[in-house]
Structure formats: structure tokens, C-alpha cells
Design a protein that fits this description.
The protein has helices at about 20-30, 45-50, 70-80, 90-115, 120-140, 160-175, 190-200, 200-205, 210-220, 225-235; strands spanning about 10-15, 35-40, 60-65, 65-70. The protein is an alpha+beta fold.
Length: about 240
């Protein structure tokens, strides 16, 4: 697809912890596009935001006075209008990558169910769900035709932009009491390598503010979940 002039006057309407905002920010950074970030509180959504976002969710990207919502749509738009292209050129591989982007969204849903688990038995069950997802990723990484460090090999792509925020959750979760016992990561060397490569990528690092980790800890503590109670027991 022919590339057109890169969009100007970009504003990314954000929530500080939203992983879907992060994936858009990563793509913007990868393409070297300047943008303004406007952060809102999703618990108290301003009227101007609801006018921009029909679903009432972040992210929203404002482009020359028009608003795009839904992270996948925004990322696809950016890949059409600005270099470098993050999707593979082959239509079959491009479709496969889009499917793995959807898989990344499913993993985010599983993470949400994990940190919201009401009791220890449910927490253990949701941890096993996460482990199963990571095993599927390990298998997919093992099928690469060329070595990593990224999803499709040496080049950073759109699937990487999706999974950077997925793994970032665990930079905090892995430090919480008892998470080693959940066995999320053992025996997954390719996942470990991919996670480390994404964590070292400047665009992934720049997708959140310096207070992200503390903000996530506060969010998790306030959930009233089994994970929250683990955190509170240690704090006491």
C-alpha cells in the first residue's frame, strides 16, 4: 500500500495504566510521530471525552480535528500513513499477525481476570489460564522461520507493540508475594527472551510515565481481590 504524508497535530487521549493506550503510543514512537498526550480519569469521564469516544474507552487519537477510537483501528491507520510499516508485506503473514494481535487482547482479558480473582482458588485457576496462554506463545515463537528477538524475527512489528504492554504488567506482578509459586514462566525460554527484548525497546519504555509501576501497585491494592489481600498482608 502506498504511503501518504504522515498525519499532523496528533493528540492521544489516554489513561495512565491502559495497555491499549500503550500499544498506540508504542506505534507512534516507532514511527517517530510527534504527539500530545491528554490523560483522563476513566472513573470520572469528562463530557468532552464521551463526545469523542462512542464506547467511552481509551485510547482515542485525534487527527486534524477528527477522532479515531479502538486501538487496533488506530494502529492500522498509523501503519497505512507513516513509515516504517510494522506489518509484514505478505497478505497471509499480515493476517496471521493480526490474529496474534487479537490473541494479545485475549491475554489482557486473562490478566484482568487474574488480578480480579475474588479468592485464592480462583487466583490459582486464572494463573493456570495465563500459563496456558504463555505456553501457546512459546510454541508460536518456536515456529519462527528466522531467529528473534521479536515475534517474527529480527524486525519489530505490530504484534510486538501489542505484547509490550502485556508483559509490562508482570514487571510489577512478579514482585508481589507468592507469585513465584504460581509457575507462570518456568520452562518458557523463548517467551523470556521476547519479554526481555520488548522491555529494552525504547518505544516500549516511553509508552508509560515514570510513575506507572506505583500507579499499577495502587490499582491492584484497591481491587479487593485475592491479589490485593496478598499485598495488604505484606504491607501490614
Amino acid at each position: 500500500m502506498a504511503q501518504t504524508t504522515a498525519p499532523a497535530a496528533l493528540t492521544l487521549v489516554s489513561h495512565a495504566l491502559c495497555p491499549y493506550v500503550q500499544r498506540v503510543a508504542i506505534v507512534l514512537h516507532e514511527k517517530g510521530l510527534a504527539f500530545e498526550r491528554r490523560t483522563i480519569d476513566l472513573a470520572r469521564k469528562p463530557d468532552w471525552f464521551l463526545a469523542l469516544s462512542p464506547l467511552g474507552k481509551t485510547p482515542v487519537l485525534q487527527v486534524r480535528g477528527q477522532s479515531l477510537f479502538e486501538s487496533a483501528v488506530i494502529c492500522e491507520y498509523l501503519d497505512e500513513v507513516a513509515m516504517p510499516v510494522l506489518h509484514p508485506p505478505d497478505p497471509l503473514q499480515r493476517a496471521r499477525h493480526r490474529a496474534w494481535m487479537e490473541f494479545g487482547s485475549a491475554v489482557l482479558n486473562t490478566i484482568g481476570a487474574f488480578y480480579a480473582a475474588a479468592d485464592e482458588a480462583t487466583l490459582q485457576a486464572r494463573a493456570q489460564d495465563l500459563r496456558s496462554r504463555f505456553e501457546q506463545i512459546e510454541e508460536a515463537l518456536g515456529q519462527r522461520s528466522v531467529p528473534g528477538p521479536y515475534f517474527a524475527g529480527p524486525n519489530f512489528g505490530m504484534v510486538d507493540a501489542v505484547f509490550g504492554p502485556v508483559f509490562r504488567y508482570f514487571d510489577v506482578i512478579d514482585t508481589l508475594p507468592g507469585t513465584d509459586e504460581l509457575g507462570l514462566w518456568q520452562g518458557l525460554p523463548l517467551v523470556h527472551q521476547w519479554r526481555a527484548a520488548l522491555a529494552a525497546r525504547p518505544s516500549v519504555q516511553q509508552a508509560v510515565g515514570a510513575d506507572y509501576a506505583e500507579g499499577l501497585r495502587a490499582f491492584l491494592r484497591a481491587r479487593g481481590s485475592a491479589l490485593s489481600r496478598r499485598m495488604q498482608a505484606v504491607a501490614a
